[in-house]
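Interim report to the steering committee. The following record documents the input for DHA2 family multidrug resistance protein (509 residues).
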Amino acid sequence: MAASDDSFSLLSPRRRLLAGLVLALSNFMVVLDLTIANVSVPHIAGNMGITPDQGTWIITSYAVAEAICVPLTGWLAQRFGVVRVFMMSMAGFGLFSLLCGLSVTLGMIVVCRIGQGLCGGPIMPMSQTLLMRIFPPEQRAKMMGLWAMTTLLGPAMGPIIGGYISDNWSWHWIFFINLPIAALCIMAAAALLKPVETETRKLPIDFAGLALLVFWIGCLQIMLDIGRDRDWFGDPLIVILAIMAGVGFLVFIIWELTEEHPIVDLRVFRHVGFTSGVFTLALCFGAYFASIVVVPQWLQLSMGYTATWAGFVTAFTAMTALIAAPISGRMIARVDVRISISSALIWMGIMAFWRAHWTSGADFWALSYPQIFQGFAMPFFMIPLTTLSLSSVLPSETASAAGMQNFLRTMAIAISTSVVLTVWGDGQRVSRNEMASVLQAGDAQAQLSASGFSMEQARQVISNMVDQEAAVISMNYVFFFSMILMFLAAAVIWLAPKPTGKVDTSAAH
């Protein structure tokens, strides 16, 4: 969403700078919450007496709610005003953060995370829109660079901050720390941004489309989240949810294609460049986020890492991405973006192949090196991919295309979280059974007994070793599949025609 007026002249340079920093901070907070809970899932699960698999609902519920709310952002801004929507969203985000921290059951925290996601969804695009309104054209590129840096920095700092807080304070504080930031952003917006409020007008809203969107996504996500605990399609409830999700999806597509004011403009998919671009984005982002979910859990549950150190291993990727981002931005105008995107995805596929050879004996740096090197490729597919997909649609469709792009990226995160944990859990059971069937444990038991272990203790030690090896073998398969998805995405991007001309990426929230 670009600013076409001169509303920036209503603020003094000092107020513009302060407002810009506050908007960047608000975006950082929302992006941070996407990953801050990842390393804390074992702590939360242990505290609430639930399985780590159930604990991941805390991640997926936030991502799904955020994805559902994104298509509503444009309507909300035009109906109530950008500044007002930003402040209401921030207030809701702070309230639900407080309730998340006070949660004592899985049901309560999942409901509160849904509320957090619904309120957090509009904050990213609204902060971007306001940055474009308060700065003059010659300064917008620099401020969008700052905004983009917070988008990369959030996932980097999330695992570290979440790990440190969980280890040294309590997991509740990963949510409580949002409260002072939300309060600061609300007060600053009220004091600084009121002069640049947008005009409001009554607009029709596609309530039927919204209801269908919530219905089919809800059915799909519940199916993915509880399927691994219910033997998948051996359970009638999973079959019913799958049918409901499929029928809901088909009806949603038909409705949106025939509605005059659709909640999601599916017509943008007629552009081959956009379709191949967002499909590539969904594939690679799903494969990338799989590692962000599974690595911290494996390190804590199987390798004995604290949440803090698991956070460092996970965060190295985003840290090196920050270093490479300025180089990527300069290369967009000089190199065919399809070359940049496919090269970056092949590089990330190679890093996934490297991680597919991790062992239970790997030390901290053996685990960190592929994470570090993977980060250098991140900006070379994220930034050019936005440019490619948005340059493939008409200028009047840019906002809709950007919203769809963000929606699919967020849904890829939610779905990949559920799928990867299912694959990892099932793989552990298969690997454990295979090892148990060929294991000759007699000699090991005798040696352990000679060392002073009781028979029961010796069996437990051997069982723990088998569990540890089964966990890493299964995770290696996860990374092997991630590699295949990365290579597939690198090929799919070449279905897009070579982009021509410049595109306004300011709508790419």
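The two ends are 9 Å apart (CA to CA). The committee is asked to note this result when reviewing the revised timeline.
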